[in-house]
Amino acid sequence: MKHILFFSEAVTLAHIARCIALANEIHRSGNYKITIAADNRYDEIIGSVPFQRIPLHTVSSHYFEKKLAKGLPIYNVQTLTDYVNEDLKIIDEIKPDFIIGDFRLSLAISSRIKKIPYATITNAYWSPYADIAYPIPELPLTKIFGIAVAQKLFDFARPFVFKLHTLAFNKVCKKYRQPELGSDLRQVYTHADYTLYADIESLIPMKARPSNHVFIGPILWSANVSLPVWWSKLPSDKPFIFVTLGSSGDSSLLPMLLETLSQMSVTVLCVTAKKTILKKTYANVFITEFIPADLAVKKADIVICNGGSPMVYQSIAENKFVIGLPSNLDQYLMMTLAQTAGYGELIRSGKADCDSITHAVTQALALDKRVTSSDECSLDINKITELMDSVLKNSG
Fold first, then answer.
1. Which residues 6+ apart lie within 8 Å of 95 measured at CB?
2. CB 10 within 8 Å of CB 42
3. Cα–chain-centroid distance for residue 107?
4. Element (H, E) at 26
5. SS3 (DSSP) at 36
6. Are 2-219+379-394 and 231-376 in the same CATH fold?
7. Which residue, 345, 292, 298, 346, is CA-closest to 319?
8. Under CATH, which number does the domain 231-376 receive?
9. Distance between CA atoms of 226 and 114, rounded to whole angstroms?
10. How many angstroms separate the Cα of 108 from the Cα of each of 111, 159, 190, 333?
């Protein structure tokens, strides 16, 4: 039986969640042995898995968020070198036939050293073949110059910033005598033998791309936690709003959101993800740390989230309007595309206030429900297994 080794960078829940969800789907086929290497920081909501798990070091989520907030490179030469060395040690121990990673950038180096076929899970809006614009995220520039001027400065500086983010990676490539990947951050983020886009293909405009860049559909996942004791008692006589800013959203917005929604004729379910302590309570607001997202979204009329791909796709899959409050570039890219396609509304997290939230919720409740093809928002597991079977057959 062929052995598939997953590596997940756990800087946000999304990366490890996608790996776990995909590994579960592949495991169900019964045709492969699965091992996943990942940090244990989210074990409380991931729960047990039916395959081997081994520890993997990941920089802290707090460190990751601080770097993003300042627009600085996330990984330095030493960190990436440590990552490659840990990758190599695990690969030698497991001896996999195929590697799948999610934002474990070092695998582009370590998999080549070991000559193991490698596929990366990513989003197509990070692809060098994506035909899109790049909105400025919440950076100090936006507060100093305002959005319009800051966007022009960002458009001018972006190629240089993207190059800055590749310097450490290319130095580590050189250190291990592997080909450098150039000065475009998007190449570093998506480089692999096979690049798997966990997206709705029709959502993201693309230029002509190589055959090893494949859309597999969104990878949906929900926390493996019990429902709150009050779940069955939630009122059903008013519109239902699900609020979650996830592991990487601006949790400082939650008090304002709940204060605003408490004054509307709605029922609110808020997930804190242990990111903030809410001191005030409201009669129409129910609060919990985590909840299975699929059940919460299914119950909701509107989802308010950070605009990142996991919750946006979960909302699209359930035909629910999404209000996104993005802060980092990944969230801005996803939510901009979702808004353009009519799936929701983007409110800049730096500009979100009571008035903008009230207006967005009121407008969303007045809309006719959007009809979405379920095929658009489902994972095509056959594409992945057929790809692996072909690669492994040809490699002997």
1. 3
2. yes
3. 18
4. helix 13-28
5. strand
6. yes
7. 298
8. 3.40.50.2000
9. 42
10. 6, 22, 9, 24
Per-residue confidence (pLDDT) for residue 249, from 0 to 100: 86
Q: Which pLDDT belongs to residue 374?
A: 58
Chain CA centroid to CA 8, Å: 12
CA distance 82 to 176: 12
CA distances from 190 to 17, 102, 186, 291 (A): 18, 10, 6, 31
Measured between alpha carbons, how far is 333 from 158 in angstroms, rounded to an integer? 14
pLDDT < 50 positions in the chain: none
Helix (H) or strand (E) holding 393: helix 381-394
Provide the b/e sequence for 225-235 (b: ≥16 CB within 10 Å): eeebeebeeee
Domain residue extents for the chain: 2-219+379-394, 231-376
The third-level CATH classification (topology) of the domain covering 2-219+379-394 is: Rossmann fold (3.40.50)
Dihedral over Cα of 302, 307, 311, 315: its sign: positive
Q: Which tens digits make up the pLDDT trace of 308-323?
A: 999 999 999 999 999 9
Structure tokens at 209: 């791309």
